[in-house]
Amino acid sequence: MMKKILYTVLFVVAFCVNSYAQAPVDLFDPFYEDLSMWEGSGLINDTPSIRPYPLQEIERLLQMVMEKGDAGQRRRAEEYYKRFFGRAFHFGGKTEFNFAQQANKNEQQFFITPFAKMNYRISKMLTVAAYVSFSLFNKLDNSSLLPAASYSSKDIAEDHGTIVGKWRMLPMFNSSVTFGTAASYITAGLGRTSYGPFHNSGIFISRDAFHAGQFIFTVNKTKWAYNQVLLLLSATDKGGYNFAPNKFLASHSLDIRPFPWLTFSIIDSMVYGGRFEPIYLIPFSAFFLGQSIYQFPDNTVLGMSCTVKPIRGLRFDSALYVDDLGLTEIIKFQSALWRLAGEFGVSYTMPNTHWFSFVDLNYTLVMPYMYTHVDDHNQNKPNYQNYTHHGAPLGTNLDPNSDRIYLKLKFRPLYGFDIDISDTFIRHANTTESIADIGMIKDYLERNYTTDGSVFNHPTITSRDAANGSTVWKNHAFLYATPFMQQKTIQYINQLAFDVSCHLPIVKSGGYMLFKLGYVFETNINPGVRNNVYLPSDTSKGWANRSIADIGEAEIRKEAARQLENWRANAKGKQFNHYIRLSAEVAY
Q1: What does the buried/exposed string (b/e) look like for 127-157 if buried means 16 or more CB atoms within 10 Å of the residue's CB?
Q2: Which is nearest to 20 in space by CA: 97, 121, 90?
Q3: Can the peptide bond before residue 536 be classed as cis, meaning omega within 30 degrees of 0?
């Protein structure tokens, strides 16, 4: 009886005092979706590439909308302004119910989350934002509760926590401190990060990645902007487990805006770890040339993006992120090392408040082995060079050798009432299926490599130097080919999503009531593609110290063919999955 009373009290408390997290530390705050609409309509054209934005920048953006927008846009901006700057401290909570049916298996999740938040301007140039919560729940987000190729939006680390009956309680904390003005500032914080122009699962840095320590430096002028970020990441072993510290992403970019309707950017990133390297803090430097001092020990990635707005409301975006290019092969019109990711989109946003808000269509591709790297032969050691954080991709949520078409329509028939309809079509293939080199196949069969086609499936086979214990790079699969979607077994995923939200402002306090209903119908064909193709077997375990000639190539290929046939048989199938999310929120 006492348990039921406790659950009831917690539910009522959470329901009655619920609120959003803060935009300076929460990229899922609805402010950012409205900001994207204001950018798409041409109302705003000079935002920095790296989010989240501090209160200084948020205030500038809201003032622009309140000065230049129509009545509906000004009303929305005024509500945000009152929420962010009307009072420094808020208290609240959150209730959420999620239901998932995958392969006829049902999962249910329930969250109750009281929290406190702060937006405080210490002085004109110094601001602080923070969000702390304690979630009472029956289970954390997992692959059985989420649609394919998606990750949790909750920054709650897996831990036993405090047990309350059959429930668990765990805390979450995000914060940021910013010094400067809207024109130039430096931020230190703990939270999620994204890099434009595609802020929802972009190829550079995605808001889908787990929160991390962040240091952001931005100079934002009318014609140009400079952005620099240092992320403190969590490394994992070969399979994405056993977290370890001392992994970093250093990234900087230059945005050029010669006209209000045109922006193009270059981005230079470095993933490294096992040490802290101050050379990657130097602004306006070339990271790749900087690491040449140390004989190129780290993983450098170069990118570029472009945004064109030919008329009000119409927007074209493109982005390219390059790990490796075989320039010699390209010049000779031969098969090249196309280790890259790209994203291309077109959208139309109504310039003024309208019942039809916008339509967005984009295409993303991730070439084989993109984001995958390895820095040691010992697969139990932390991998400091792959483009991951906390066991998941740091960039787009697509695996290597995948592509995606995404279409979204947003309607706002009444003020505060939104209807979103979207469809996502994904293809993915496991590059290991097409590996034919006998040396690589032998290593896959005798050692426990990850061969599931994920970001942890690197293209390199290694060994240990018997003389000094160092790593020997035996071979790299990408040197032969990067066969994009050329495998026999392809996974196809289609996700049709329908979301309704009702946002009712509370004028007196600057708060609101928010109710949400979301549904996703997912078709997943060949869901087993993301399993390991090859594993050590009783037949191959004794091959480690034997040569190919000693074992016999025919014997190796026979065992490989057996495992490949089993993998193909287990990869095939069809799933029709359902996901329902309900939430009710009140903010004061």
Answers
A1: bbbbbebbbbbeebbeeebbbbbbbeebbbe
A2: 90
A3: no
For residue range 411-436, list pLDDT tens digits in order.
999 998 999 999 999 999 999 999 88
CA 342/CA 539 separation, integer angstroms: 41
Q: Helix, strand, or coil here: 6?
A: helix
Tokens 């996703």, located at residue: 520
Quick one: DSSP state of residue 479? Answer: G
What distance in Å separates the CA atoms of residue 253 and residue 194, rounded to the nearest whole number?
13
Structure-block tokens of residue 18: 């619920």
pLDDT score, position 332: 55
- Other CB atoms within a 10 A radius of the CB of residue 529 amount to 26
Residue 358 and residue 499: Cα distance in Å, rounded? 15
Which residues, 6 or more positions from 431, have their beta carbon under 8 angstroms from its beta carbon?
368, 369, 400, 401, 453, 457, 459, 477, 483, 487
Distance CA 87, CA 78 (A): 14
Q: What does the alpha-carbon distance between residue 370 and residue 341 come to, in Å, rounded to a whole number?
A: 7
Peptide bond into 30 cis (omega under 30): no
Residues 186-200: tens digit of each pLDDT: 999 999 999 989 988
pTM across the whole model: 0.91
CA distance 566 to 556: 16
Sign of CA dihedral 47, 39, 497, 420: positive
CA distances from 90 to 11, 30, 129, 170, 433 (A): 19, 17, 11, 20, 53
**Helix, strand and coil in the chain, % to nearest 5:** 20, 45, 35
Q: What is the end-to-end Cα distance of the chain in Å, rounded?
A: 31
389-398 pLDDT, tens per residue? 999 999 999 9
